Amino acid sequence: MSQQHQPELLSGGAMLIRALRDEGVEFVYGYPGGAVLHIYDALFQQTEVKHVLVRHEQAATHMADAYARASGKAGVVLVTSGPGATNAVTGIATAYMDSIPMVVICGQVMSHLIGDDAFQETDMLGISRPIVKHNMSVRNPADIPALVKKAFYIAQSGRPGPVVLDIPKDMTMPNQKFPYEYPKDIKLRSYNPNAKGHPGQIKKALQTLLAAKKPVLYAGGGVILGQASAELTELAQRLNLPVTNTLMGLGAYPATDPQFIGMLGMHGTYEANQVMHNADVIFAVGARFDDRVTNATKKFCPNATIIHIDIDPASISKTIMAHVPIVGLVKPVLQEMLHQLEKHGNTLDQAALGQWWQQIGQWREVHGGRFEHRTDLLKPQAVIEAVWRHTKGDAYVTSDVGQHQMFAAQYYKFDKPNRWINSGGLGTMGFGLPAAMGVKLHYPEAEVVCVTGEGSIQMNIQELSTCKQYGLGVKIINLNNGYLGMVKQWQDMNYDSRYSSSYMDSLPDFVKLAEAYGHVGIRVTSPEELEPALEKAFALKDKLVFLDIHVDPKEHVYPMQVPGGAMNDMFLSKTERT
Amino acid sequence: MRHIIAVLLENESGALARVVGLFAQRGYNIDSLTVAATEDPTMSRLTLVTRGDDQVIEQITKQLHKLIEVVKLVDLSESAHIERELMMVKVKASGDQREEVKRCADIFRGQIIDVSPTTYTIQVVGTSDKLEAFIEAMCNTQILEVVRTGVSGISRGEKALSL
Ligand SMILES: Cc1ncc(C[n+]2csc(CCOP(=O)(O)OP(=O)(O)O)c2C)c(N)n1
Ligand SMILES: [Mg+2]
Questions:
Q1: Interval A275-334: pLDDT, tens
Q2: What is the pLDDT of residues A434-481, one digit of tens each?
């Protein structure tokens, strides 16, 4: 045997880092502690896998998560046992709810201490079980390369999700070495995620779609995760279908295209919700009929035949019965549909479709994303429109959770997938800034904007320090309305404006705060200050600029579905209801 | 509707917790659950009795399938199958009662597996219904203890749940 076939001998810690390298990982986000000291020492002794030191483990998880959302590849987190691991829980749950691939490596106390309530021991496998796609622990250091391979494989295939790998400290001892070899492939007898879709069902789906008189294409985050935007767009345009995207699906279909009718659901457009409610065929692609979309399921789209493509069979007919279910990866299924369409031709009833578009045109005029334009008061919607203009619609936009998130979703027109990065399923305040950091680190040339509120930004504000350390020039658009605005909106609508704990007294001076961290802060308090401030902020290419923009504290997000109603039961303003 | 779901599971630590956790997390019922290794020591077989309408059962089987360690599963109730459960009942039995208890056990083809001057312990095997009928039949007797294994099931004929 020649020398080069001899596997190198490495410690558990070194094997872990080498395996990450061999998996193509460039950055790991994390925070050190006792249980992971051997691993951190192994990190120190090489240069290929770079570590980003955050200020709170939650931020590490959101950075990894957002990197995954932007790139499609799993992000990697490294935290210590006990409090390090529990601090990561919110971020793991955030990724889980949105099916984001992520590998979280947690330290654990020495194997022989497990179960003894040892210092910094928590049962991370138990804690994370309901919020992971899978979790595993290392029993034998020699298994580390195979377990890393397995973790990435599970996280990134099928319906993606976070995987936790729990590593007791004695699995990474520097003086115990094992032959290292990274597996090329992996096969699990109990997991076979790649479905192409049943050809018969695909045919039936196309026939159903082509027989429609009032069709709609309802596309979700699965299209983005499944990298099937191009196929979706092609199919929609060949058939001239109206397209609506979910909050998670924004960018899957270009928002500036005339066939796009906007987001649907709770804060969806009037036209999107009307189209859904009145459709005769709903073609759902990589969407899961979430309760924030359907409103009351009993009243959901009474006349619609439903075609549903999803990689996860459990998402099909979970809340809404699908008439034509297709279990499969959206990309090959849509490709097959396009192929069959090529063969059979477009037999849609064009007259009926024309009438349908006419009706849609009328619905578009009813609300049309209108908002009040004022000269004395900044409207949050106007700020988002201005940000869209200044970034030529091409920025990565991350957001936190609240009214500002909905305004960003409604008024920033995403023409590309992977650009809109928000916590849709869990609705995690504190997501926005670390998410922006995760994207900026990997795409330093790209414009990365974090749309946030004065409530949310304070949940991970400490990361301004991390931004300084790594030179992350993100732009923070703080839509400062002085309130936990979304909570206040519900209190206005349902609790006679009793603002129970939705007002925050003693807000910091965000401009000074940004400056204290070594960044640029700009305050905007009136409409005429907005343009020059944005001009200046986006001209400062490599700087983090914190724009503290004081907006109308009384504004509500509209349209808004009436709770318990059908999709098209909506409030259109403070005084109008459908 | 009552369903018996048989699951082949990787025989790994944590796999069972994942199955049980899934039921707790999603609010599904478990009437009974049995689990043990199969002839292949890398695999366990689990039999679960649960209740729900068709939609719930469909979700249960789909969600179980999603667990990485679930290799295969089948809803036994969907076709011809055999179910068995083992029960041990300890009853007060002295004087005249001893004969009566014994007769009752015989009717149910139960076996007396332990005897003391004042007690009998009877083992009964059968469907859950049969076991419940036996407990009912013993209503005149003072039952000290009942222990049931939960249901195990297997499909009839050539159908088999295996790799
Ligand atoms: C971690 C967390 N806690 C609480 C909530 C509930 N919540 C949803 S929106 C919101 C208000 C957010 O306020 P702010 O960030 O100022 O945004 P605004 O709605 O004012 O734009 C709250 C408290 C949440 N989503 N996440
Ligand atoms: Mg606010």
A1: 999 999 999 999 999 999 999 999 999 999 999 999 999 999 999 999 999 999 999 999
A2: 999 999 999 999 999 999 999 999 999 999 999 999 999 999 999 999
Cβ density class A409-429: b for 16+ within 10 Å, e for less: bbbbbbeebbbbbbbbbbbbb
pLDDT at residue A41 in the model: 98
Cis previous bond, A559, omega within 30: yes
d(CA B142, CA B130) in angstroms, rounded, equals: 19
Q: Is the Cβ of B55 closer than 8 Å to some Cβ of chain A?
A: yes
Please compute the mean of the pLDDT values over residues A541-556 and round it to a whole number. 97
Using a CB-CB cut-off of 8 Å, the residues of chain A touching B62 are 313-314
Output the CA–CA distances (angstroms, integers) from residue B151 to A68, A562, B87, in the order listed. 44, 47, 10
For residue A362, the surrounding DSSP H or E stretch is helix A350-366
Cα A6 to Cα A2, A12, A295, A447, B32: the distances in Å are 7, 18, 61, 46, 52
Helices in A519-575 by DSSP H: which ranges? 527-539
Residue among A63, A78, A97, A90 nearest A435 (CA) = A63
Other CB atoms within 10 A of residue A129 CB: 18
Phi then psi dihedrals of residue B9, to 5 deg: -130, 140
The tokens for B58 are: 């469909």
B39: CB partners within 8 A, 6+ apart = none
Which helix or strand (DSSP H or E) is residue B51 part of?
strand B43-51
Cα–Cα distance list, A428 to A78, A85, A246, A422, B93 (Å): 20, 18, 17, 9, 63
ipTM value > 0.90? yes
Statement: the pTM of the whole predicted model exceeds 0.90: yes
For A257-289, b/e burial (b = at least 16 CB within 10 A) is: eebbbbbbbbbbbbbbbbbbbbbbbbbbbbbbb
Asked if pLDDT for residue A31 goes beyond 80, the answer is yes
Q: Tell which wins on pLDDT, A127 or A3.
A: A127
Q: What is the pLDDT of residue A515?
A: 98
- Asked if residue A183 lies in contact with residue A255, where contact means CB atoms within 8 angstroms, the answer is no
DSSP strand pairing (A50-53 vs A324-327):
unpaired
The residue of chain B nearest to residue A136, with distances taken between CA atoms, is B14
Query: What is the DSSP secondary-structure string of B123-148?
Result: EEEE-HHHHHHHHHHTTTS-EEEEEE
Residue-wise pLDDT for A59-94, tens only, equals: 999 999 999 999 999 999 999 999 999 999 999 999
* From A129, A137, A189, residue closest to B21, measured CB to CB: A129
Query: Is residue A440 annotated as a catalytic residue, yes or no?
Result: no
**Residues A493, A559: Cα–Cα separation, whole Å:** 13
Coil vs helix vs strand at A226? coil
Bridge-partner residues for A77, per DSSP? A29, A104
Positions of chain B with pLDDT under 70: none
Distance from CA of A545 to the nearest CA of B (A): 43
A3: number of Cβ within 10 Å: 5
Tell me which amino acid residue B76 is: L
- Residue B86: strand pairing partners: B125
CA–CA separation, A425 vs A94, rounded Å?
A: 7
Among A129, A134, A189, beta carbon nearest to B17? A129
